[in-house]
Here is the input.
Amino acid sequence: MIASFRPLLRQLTVACAAVIASCGTYGECPLGPCPLRDLHERDASSVAEFMARYDQGSAKPVEAHQDEKRLRNVRQLTFAGQNAECYFSFEGDQFIFQSTRGDLEADQMFTMDLAAGSLRLVSSGLGKTTCGYFLPGAKRILYASTHVDSPEPPEPPDYSKYGYVWKFNSGFDVFSADPDGRAPCRLTSTPGYDAECTVSTDGAWIVFTSMRGGDLDLWKMRVDGSDCTQLTRELGYDGGAFFTPDGRQIIYRGYTPHTAEEEAAYREMMQLGMWKPGPLDLRIMDADGGNKRTFLANGASNWAPFMLPDGKRVIFSSNLHDPNPKNRNFDLYLVGVDGSGLERITYDEQFDGFPMFSPDGKLLVWAANRHGAKPRDTNLFLADWSD
Here is the structure.
């Protein structure tokens, strides 16, 4: 079904170029009718039949590494393809995550019911999506997508030429939608990358990373896309931001070049819309951008910080134990927001990343290469947290 929309959407993308450039907040999707309208108008049984093509079965218990003392009752939630950035709803009963599976050509956005394990595709199946998040009350979802820029997924970077790099596709913009994917609204429309969006605990603000100012900085806007404000201005990459549980601060990952050579290399890669991962610090600031400070700078690539409900500790992913970026061997760590008490949480010899706690702090969800059907498969795992 999704493939049949592509010729029409290519035409709409060209025909609506002027509309796209001037798309306002909470207006009609500039691609015209919702690409999933046919799915939305089906009855429950037809929807279930359609979604079955993406179903990989129920969660299964798996063994944790013997040194992973804080993880109990580990369950594998997905079993093939690429699955990442799995985040709880504010109520703790649903996940939203990006996945390439089945007939999908690139990451699309899915939701999963925690109790039933049922899946729902909530993006169009076109372009590429990333960075999904629920608003409080699960009345709307957010995600970044390139489907307005092109119905085809963006080309991946040439690793043979540049090595391992992160690509910040200029076609990404932030969208909101109903929880089932209906009524998508484009919230950003500036040239360059807009993604990595998460929501404040009161549901009033979105923090996201944008290149609209010529650099990868953090910005925030209201949930309708208005009152957009720049939060960081230092040269370098700032991203992966989350509000703290009390909503008063924002934690994020950051890189600042310190020498002329580092600055030149960074600017060169930014011209290509890419960054070669290297040292990343963990930082915190007030929700208005004030009182910025770094609380972890150890020369490693530290990223995906998420604060525990106690407001005192942060879980994050790091290659501290294996700093060679070619290995992509990341594990989860815990550290105090004052930089003390560093503790390693996972010990698998492959990738562990994108950690997030349930609102009550009892469950941890993350993405990992462990137990993959094929090398480099990335799946989602859920564990009871032992504090």
